[in-house]
Amino acid sequence: MTRWPLTYFPTLAIALVAVLPVGVLLMLASDNPQGFDARNLAVLGNTLLLMVFTAVGATFVGVALALLTTYVQLPWRRVWLILLAAPLAMPSYIGAFTFYAAFGPGGEIDNLLGLPTPAVGGLAGATVVMTLYTYPFVLLTTRASLSSLDANLVHAARTLGMSLVASLWRVVLPRVANGIAAGALLAALYALSDFGTPAIMGLDTFTRVIYVEYNAFGLSQAAMLSLQLLVIVGLVLFLESRVRGSRERPGRHLFLWPGRWQTALLLVATSPVFLLSILLPLSVFSLWLWREGMGDFELAYAWNSTYASLLAALVAVLLALPVAHAAIRGKAGRVMERVTYLGFGVPGIVMGTALVYVGLQLPFLYQTLGLLVLGYVLRFLPLAVGSIRATSENLDASLVNAARALGASPREAFQRITLPLTLRGIVAGAALVFLEAMRELPATLLLGPTDFETLATYLWRVYEAGYFGQAAVPGLLLVLISGLGLVLMFSGERWTLSKAKAPNPVADA
Amino acid sequence: MALVGAMGVFPRAVPRSPAQSAVPQTAAISVDRLPQLKGELTLYLGRGEGGLYENVLKAIQKRNPDFELHIRRGPTAALANSIVAETRAGLRRADLFWAVDSGAVGLVTGTGAAQTLPAELTQQLRPEFQFPDWVPISGRIRTLPYNTKRLTADQLPSSILALADSGLSIGWAPAYAAFQSFVTAMRLLEGDQVTIDWLRAVKRRAKNYAGELGVVMAVERGEVDVGLANHYYTLRLKSGKPEANVDLAFTRNDAGCLVNVSGILALRAGELPVNFIRYLLTREVQSYLATEAFEVPLVEGIPPPQGLPPLDTVSPPTLDLTRLADLRPTLDLMRKAGVL
After folding, report:
1. CB-CB under 8 Å, A212 with B175
2. Who has the most CB within 10 Å: A277, B91, B159, B213?
3. Domain B141-257+325-336 sits in which CATH superfamily?
């Protein structure tokens, strides 16, 4: 029997903790066993369609924008990158609600500009909204993989007569399939577990059935249905794990220099995404703010959000490192890694309640910031694991072997080879967890300290009360702070890039 | 915000008409006669109606400088589930639970976690709203909002069961909690068979809406003749748009005019939680909820919101409201009828 890689042990512990809420669901569901209801089949169909369309839409938009922001030397590249990743900062139910309010006869666009627009709703509407708020998953994971590719292959293809588009399609994309799949997986899981968007768009999905049960005090049925949803999640996880990119050593970065009109064309083609996902909701909110006034917002809420989300990002990344490493090392590690994904596919409120049960077993932690951070980490660990794994997979194992052969200890090899080369994935993973924690709602409501008001809980409160104008300032701040987070992280990238070059001589040796 | 801004205490109960002001205010107590609150309480607040509960809580805190109120907000069902989990684990964090839905109250009182309240407190309420371990705060009546351009009140049936055969087009919101409570009441009063037949019959004439505000708006626009909704949606719509083509009708002595309530219960023993509840039953708070939120005051002597007949003239069915927590069979029934 081969010895287990060292990272298997922490990974096993993390997987066990991650599976705890699922265990709680099993316990809750056992109160009232009720098999799969045939009446739910139509609903299941809607759910799967929404999931597939969202994954396809997010991949299409996300990959295109990843190529654009990674390779094309646009003016204000970083600004564009931040704007394009910003939809992650917006809770999708807020986005869906503003779409609903803005479009259609009698909508705000109709009222203000007199432009008749079609109403946004149903499967098509839910797909559009869901795509707009999940494509950054694909953008960030794909980008992380793209940046560690060697441009020499593209140059070779071009020298041999392949056009740029063809070489991107046939040489670049197949090699970042892992990164794309990791992002598409997150988008699919998000679509499976989100409740707000389909509810506002009037689409009957699995989560709606779960919510009807939950709100009717049928916690055991809600848990049972969530477990059934987890079967789909498991299937998606399996499919994603079949996707294999190539492994190769990183090399020279690809740069594309567009002409002036090409730049203009690219920006014009890109702008609708930003206009719809960020500018539209913020404009609608500003309109309501102007109509209704600001209310009793306090800046402390923004600090609470930021603080808790930063902690969550930090802890998630620390835990994700061994998990991602274990996933690459062997089959058992791969299985354990998959287990940590389960929590991401369960509707937030059911997961939040399951975490209440977990938290109650740790009375000293219950309703403290510590438990909230743990809750965030359990829910969003896959975000960090996915992007770290995507970059680590492209890491050439011979680099580490070479370092070891040259006398470096495993720790030194990790510090000087593995870590710098995966830093990009780590940064992207931390960014994803930070943004997702900023907009998370149900766990924040149920697990945080009492009186712990965050931007998301305040948004929910005024939204529920129908004071939409009061959502403007927190909504704006949410996007702004998340944007700042992105600025910090993307500017860390430059440092990463220069650091990452250091080990290359080892590879060449 | 007027409540807090005006005086940091409570607005005076402004009688809407001379006739109503003549009602003797026997049971309702003024905040001026209540003891000062001292100490700390943690309240789990199931999402408040239009933020107006928040204003009440702010006013109470402002009036009692030595009192600190910690609030955990969340969806009512989620907080009820948390309290049940905390009780099971023997870890009580909430001192009070204010729920917008009596079903959630029933879930918690069913576990035996709620404290018995002093009789002189519960006796401030109308007899049909007196319970040993929780206190209803404000009521909402099931109504039939109808389009005044298409119908007059006398064209509407006075029995909810007869509505199914009335030939009118109907708007309803089956996924909405208030509607499900109403179906539960019908199930408890009339039995499963009658209820499922009624659901199937109405379904043929019904149009679905996501919520009951949507139902009332659809009635007003004339998309349907009549709707099934809590009373306050109509009153709130009419307060913003007095010429709206919608008015309220009531059935008699059946689930169609059920009075459901929001309610509060104490999870911690002692004077402080009880005294806190006293504030919610004062003339000032009850009048405020009636005039601003259009909720039905449940304490004797407070006039109902404008546009609603006095509670005595409505004939709601006799039903223990905590039994409305028994939603499971209702959902099964609604699924069977194909309406959910």
Report:
1. yes
2. A277
3. Periplasmic binding protein-like II (3.40.190.10)
Using CA atoms, how far residue A207 sits from A17, A211, A228, A256, in Å, is: 24, 6, 11, 43
The Cα angle at residue B219 between residues B216 and B223, in degrees rounded to 5: 130
A/B interface, count of CB pairs below 8 Å = 93
The whole-angstrom distance between residue B260's C-alpha and the CA centroid of its chain comes to: 5
Which residues of chain B from 68 to 97 reach within 8 Å of chain A, CB to CB?
70-78, 80-82, 85-86, 88-89, 91, 93
**Contact between B86 and A465 using a beta-carbon 8 Å cutoff:** no
| Other C-beta atoms lying within 10 Å of the C-beta of residue B58 | 16
List the pLDDT tens digit at each of the 340 positions of chain B.
344 433 344 544 444 443 443 344 456 888 888 899 999 999 999 875 556 788 899 999 999 999 999 999 888 888 998 999 899 888 889 999 999 888 888 889 988 999 999 999 999 998 889 999 999 999 999 999 999 999 998 899 999 999 999 999 999 988 888 899 999 999 999 999 999 999 999 999 998 877 788 889 889 888 899 999 999 889 988 887 888 899 999 999 999 999 999 999 999 999 999 999 999 999 999 999 999 888 999 888 888 898 888 777 888 898 888 888 888 889 889 988 888 7
| Binary contact (B75, A215; C-beta < 8 A) | yes
Asked if residue A105 lies in contact with residue A116, where contact means CB atoms within 8 angstroms, the answer is yes
Q: What CATH number matches the domain at A19-266+277-508, 1.10.3720.10, 1.50.10.10, 3.40.630.10, 3.40.50.150?
A: 1.10.3720.10
Task: Give the global pTM.
Answer: 0.81
DSSP bridge pairs for B136: B263
Architecture of domain B2-139+260-313: 3-Layer(aba) Sandwich (3.40)
| Cβ within 8 Å, pair A216-B47 | no
Contact B322/A at CB under 8 A: no
CB A167 within 8 A of CB A154: yes
Q: B315 with B252: CB under 8 angstroms?
A: yes
- When CB atoms are compared, the residue of B93, B104, B328 closest to A218 is B328
Q: Which residues of B touch A39 (CB under 8 A)?
A: 335
| B211 has a chain A CB within 8 A of its CB | no
ipTM for this prediction: 0.78
A286: Cα separation from own chain's centroid: 27
The distance of A36 to chain B (nearest Cα, Å) reads 14
Distance (Å, whole) CA B96 – CA A311: 31
Task: Please name the residues between 2 and 61 in chain B that touch chain A, using a CB distance below 8 Å.
Answer: 42, 47-48, 50-51, 54
